[in-house]
Amino acid sequence: MVPETPDPAAERPDDASPKADPAPERPDSPEPSGDSVGTPLVRFEKVCKRFGDTVVLDRLDLDVEAGRHVTLIGPSGSGKTTILRLLMTLTQPDEGRILIDGAPLDARARKTIGMVFQQFNLFPHMRVLRNVTEAPVHVLGMDKDEAAERAKGLLEMVGLGDKLDARPSQLSGGQQQRVAIARALAMRPRVLLLDEVTSALDPELVAGVLDVLRDIARGTDITMVCVTHEMNFARDISDLVVMFDGGRVVESGPPEALFHSPRHERTREFLSAVR
Amino acid sequence: MRTWDWSYTGHVMPDLLRGLLVTVEATALGSLLAFALGLVWALAFRAPTRWVRWPVRAVVEFVRNTPLLVQLFFLFYVLPSAGLTFSPLATGVFGLGLHYSTYTAEVYRAGIDGVPPGQWEAATALSLPRRRVWIAVILPQAIRRVVPALGNYVIAMFKDTPMLAAITVLDMLKQAEEAGAESFRYTEPITVVGLLFVLIAYPTSLLMRALERRLGT
Ligand SMILES: Nc1ncnc2c1ncn2[C@@H]1O[C@H](COP(=O)(O)OP(=O)(O)O)[C@@H](O)[C@H]1O
Ligand SMILES: [Mg+2]
Questions:
Q1: A68-89+105-274 — its CATH code?
Q2: Residues lining ligand 1, judged by CB closer than 6 Å?
Q3: How far, in Å, is the centroid of ligand 1 from the Cα of A77?
């Protein structure tokens, strides 16, 4: 294992992490940029995923370093959700491996990953506080009072300190999504997966949710893998933006570079379509 | 045609009400058994191994597709010859509960299938243990939406209890029959039995319909 080095410069060359071309590079080979890098927190190694005849991911390689914020963009159906679902073990790869901290993704590693869904998926029969305490108590074995105290803190942070006893159905979509964020954070994840978390919201509710996520991006060292069509948000929080199409990485780079001077026609078309 | 004899009606009422008590008791206990066993079947339908799924499926289909009356006779006349003897009422409750559990199993199955996939996914994303997913997430939502359907089977079971008369349980019908055999007047006791059934079953079914509307689909 390569020893940890001081944080590699924030402005990494855009070929640093995901490999834009399926080069016959060995997964363990050193990064081409020369600055040595520790084991990535998340690594996709030649991952293939098919649904019937549809090849959704075609030998995907993707690394996410600890603490980084990576945004996945690409047209609808390009496999962005599938990548997050694979990481959350909601579906299994047909080929290839997914590694967390260098070890295969298993039930134990899964506990270090949290996910926020497009449709919130709160537990509708539980009150807000219980939605947030359920997993810490029954997965982490946390004491009930301690879990409740922490949950209250998290709910306050997302601006819902006064809704502890509400049912999800009594909340707006934006409020429900903020509960879902608190619920995921309550498990103290190292990696947070965000799948178009504002797509199901009325436009006036989007900003509140994005502000909460900006705070998390700035104020914590949680690694974030994010799928969004909110390009301003992506620019604000991302270290790296990865453009997908046809089951492959088209290109990737820091947000300024990728948004201002995309190298590929497909990226340019996509960006002009969503803006 | 003979006219209705009110004093005779009053005379048989206590026996009929005693029979009603037995009928209600059999329905209540039979329902509890059907609710519990049906849930066991529904969970077994989803067992990871087919060595559980297939036998359970076979038993459930067999029980559902043979008449309740035949099952009651089997339990009442055949089991004792194998050394298993229960009171007629206990045998009747077991027969009703077992038979109706094959219907409630389907009700639960539909309820479980109706829980949105997002709920399973959220539970997985939180790494909730399997037991906890069922107890805290899936079943509360599944059962809530099938309460009216379960209630309708309770009504159906209630109306099937007269079959217990065939295995000598002194339910309402049996009481009416015995009263009639004694005095050669069947009109009053049998009519009252019918009325008592309607009086209980109809309001209950209205209640279930209201509940169904309130819980929404
Ligand atoms: N469970 C599934 N069964 C069949 N096809 C699926 C399933 N999930 C996703 N797909 C297909 O995989 C492709 C990629 O889907 P997805 O990852 O959701 O894309 P994105 O999130 O980028 O829009 C789509 O063509 C979609 O139809
Ligand atoms: Mg998607």
A1: 3.40.50.300
A2: A 51, 54, 56, 74, 76-82
A3: 6
A114 to chain B, closest Cα gap in Å: 6
Of ligand 1's listed atoms, the one at least distance from the Cα of A52 is 4
Closest approach atom of ligand 1 to CA A196: 21
Cα(A83) to centroid of ligand 1, in Å?
10
Cβ atoms within 10 Å of A198's Cβ, excluding its own: 23
Which ligand is located closest to the Cα atom of residue A242? 1
| Inter-chain CB proximity A184 and B124 less than 8 Å | no
Q: What is the pLDDT of residue A31?
A: 39
Inform me whether the pLDDT recorded for A16 exceeds 50. Answer: no
Model confidence pLDDT, tens digit, residues B57-111: 999 999 999 999 999 999 999 999 988 889 999 999 999 999 999 999 999 999 9
The answer to whether the Cβ–Cβ distance between B144 and A121 falls below 8 Å is no
Q: Give pLDDT tens digits for B48-57.
A: 999 999 999 9
| Sign of the torsion angle spanned by Cα atoms A75, A79, A85, A87 | negative
Q: Which of A13-27, A119-133, B150-164 has the lowest mean pLDDT?
A: A13-27
Helix (H) or strand (E) holding B90: helix B88-113
Q: Which ligand 1 atom is at minimum distance from the Cα of A76? A: 23
Q: Chain B contacts of A200, Cβ < 8 Å?
A: none
Tokens (6 digits) for A188:
């103290």
Torsion of CA A166, A172, A173, A177, to 10 degrees: -40
pLDDT at A34: 36
Asked if the model's pLDDT at residue B148 lies above 60, the reply is yes
Instruction: Name residue, tokens 């009747």.
Output: B92
- The mean per-residue pLDDT over the stretch A5-32 comes to 40
Domains and CATH numbers, chain B: 6-215 (1.10.3720.10)
Those residues with Cβ within 8 angstroms of residue A229's Cβ, 6 or more apart along the chain or in another chain: A73, A196, A199, A274
Minimal C-alpha gap between B48 and chain A (Å):
17
The whole-angstrom distance between residue B99's C-alpha and the CA centroid of its chain comes to 8
Q: How far is B116 from chain A (nearest CA, A)?
A: 9
State yes or no: pLDDT of B9 exceeds 50.
yes
The pTM of this model reads: 0.86
| Cα distance between residue A88 and residue A82, in whole Å | 10
